[in-house]
Amino acid sequence: MQRLQGIAVSPGVAIGEALVVDNEGFRIPRRFLPRDAVDEELGRLDRALAAAAAEVQRNRDRVQTQLGDEYAAIFTAHLQMLNDRRLREEIVDLIRNRHYSPEYAVSRSLRRYAKAFQEIEGEYMSERANDIFDIEKRILRNLLGQRREELSQVTSPVLVLARNLTPSETANLNPQFVLGLATEVGGPGSHTAIVAEGLGIPAVVGIGGFLTDVSGGDTVIVDGDQGMVILSPDEETLARYRHEVEEQRSLATKLERLRELPAETTDGQRIQLLGNIEFPAEVHQCLDRGADGIGLYRTEFLYLGRDDDPSEDAHHAAYAEVAETMADHPVVIRTLDLGADKLRTLPDPEDERNPFLGLRSIRLALKNRDMFRTQLRAILRASAHGNIRLMFPLIGTLMELRQAKMVLADAMEDLEEAGIAFDRDMKVGMMVEVPAAVVMMDMFVHEVDFFSIGTNDLIQYCLAVDRSNKDVASLYTAADPAVLRLIQMAINSANKAGVPISMCGQMCGSPMYTMLLLGLGLRSMSVTPSAVPEIKRVCRTVAIDQCQRVAEHALKLDNARDIKTYLKEELTKVFPEFPV
Ligand code: PEP
Ligand code: MG
Question: Does residue 580 lie within any of the structural domains?
Fold first, then answer.
């Protein structure tokens, strides 16, 4: 058994078989072979070993000619290993007697050797371990060839363990089969983490290197509450976690009963509880869990996972579907927020040294007017089908907001001229996720119909901490007093001007912050669909004056750790059973 600590990003516990996706995206399966397939599979193994050896030989010859014997020796060592009779026998034994697939047998044998080298101290030895991983990859490449499988095609229950997954790869996972997710890299605010939570897949990120310690098919536990991954758990640990899974199920059933009830505090204050979505299909989860509407539709996911830009009709179809399904419930469509970690292909580092500070979001939209106009026209057309509101992301300056509104006004004029129906009174709002926007709130209040605080970005820009970098994850927290003050300023300015303000960052999906946010004067929250029942339950159990006292006290504390401890204590007083 091996316990690994990472960053908890999507709650829940998952227990199951590992599906290991290595750096190159290879899926290393554990497939048991039918008895009659063994000979054929042994033939496949030998062909892969021979092909791998031929590749290494070619490399060795080339290096020898260009750089000399000394460098070629590295490949000679690889070749020796590939031709090693004992290694082949060991792999053949696993295939013949245990009926492992050649991929799994190769991976299992070579990783055992690599691990043995890793355990011997010294740089030389750890380099030998890397050599073995290299050989493993080469054989796997030859074995898997075109049979490399797509993660989206998984058809049996697994826990995906990967170096990293992009937000769009994560979005394509099927939660019916992908029970849990753990990655070596990634930070608490990364979109991969957000998408996993949206799909309700328990997830842990930022674990650091661990894939070499695990093979496909091993039993693994992903504890998305504590940020822990347990490899090959012992019986006692398994039993404890199985019990926890049962408890979570019964809590979920209890929470289901809240669906038809409003999010109303004990002293009668109605709180608007909305859902965040990335895809039209998620509206059903919001409705099933009793959300009052959609507070954030991240439309950029329409662009990810495809090579060309979606057409106006494709945009329109998605928005109209959401609007129609939600009937007269409000739907806040955020215009494209591409860039930073939401990209189709990685930009050249020369062009984008600081992606989160670069050409992302509204800046990218304003530079690509045609693309932006296409989306705006589609949103406007869809506004004829339901209660749609439009929101611009990452607004930092008034000029940016005015430019975006001008493009919108142009699009409206075009539709008007063409006689195409749209809602002329559609509400237009902005995200508050850049500290500059908070500072300028008293001016912004005159130019928008509503605000939504995006804490995921607000935290990173306030504290200068990359939301997706595991190495600074401990500094990335909504509980930092500076972040709380910014949120307080934003809520106060909006409330004073009578402009509705909501929050759609991950912060408000965590029950730990609910009392604090209500106490600060927030009356609308948009959370990941799975968090709706929990947050509703907190709202229905507390009174506003109680929350105000919590907020007042929290704001007197001078550091994130004390604030978190205090908020957890207060939540535990109300709900002793919450896993905080
Ligand atoms: C945010 O920044 O809080 C937000 C909701 O937007 P995103 O996570 O998509 O950047
Ligand atoms: Mg954001």
Answer: no
User: Which ligand 1 atom sits closest to the C-alpha of 433?
Assistant: 2
CATH of the domain at 537: 3.20.20.60
Residue pLDDT, tens place only, 346-356: 556 567 788 89
Catalytic annotation, pick one of 462, 504, 508, 539: 504
Considering the domain architecture, whether residues 406 and 512 belong to the same structural domain is answered as: yes
Amino acid letter for position 447? E
Reduced to 3 states (helix: H, G, I; strand: E, B; else coil), residue 569 is helix
Contact 276, 295 (CB under 8 A): yes
How much distance in Å is there from the Cα of 63 to the middle of ligand 1? 49
Does residue 443 share a domain with residue 514? Answer: yes
Question: Which one is catalytic: 78, 191, 315, 385?
Answer: 191
For the whole prediction, is pTM greater than 0.85?
no
- Known catalytic membership, residue 504: yes
pLDDT tens for each residue of 34-84: 778 888 999 999 999 999 999 888 888 877 887 777 777 778 888 888 889
245-279 confidence digits (pLDDT tens): 998 888 888 888 888 899 999 999 999 999 999 99
How far apart (Å, rounded) are the C-alpha atoms in residues 372 and 315?
11
| Residue 455 near ligand 1, beta carbon < 6 Å | yes
Residues 102, 168 within the same domain? no
CB of 341 sitting under 6 A from ligand 1: no
Whose C-alpha lies nearest to ligand 1, atom 3? 454
If asked whether residues 332 and 358 sit together in one domain, one would say: yes
Pairwise CA distance, residues 315 & 319, whole Å: 6
Split into its structural domains, the chain has a count of: 3
Whether 360 lines ligand 1, by a CB cut-off of 6 Å, is no
* Complete DSSP assignment for 392-431: ESS--SHHHHHHHHHHHHHHHHHHHHHT----TT--EEEE
Residue 302 lies in a domain: yes
Q: Which residue has the higher pLDDT, 258 or 30?
A: 258
Alpha-helical (H) ranges within 120-234 are 123-144, 167-171, 191-199
Q: Is 337 in the pocket of ligand 1 (CB under 6 A)?
A: yes
Between CA 574 and CA 521 the distance in angstroms is 20
Active-site residue 78, yes or no?
no
Atom of ligand 1 nearest to the CA of 298: 9
* Final residue in a domain of this structure, among 249, 271, 292: 249
Does residue 138 share a domain with residue 153? no
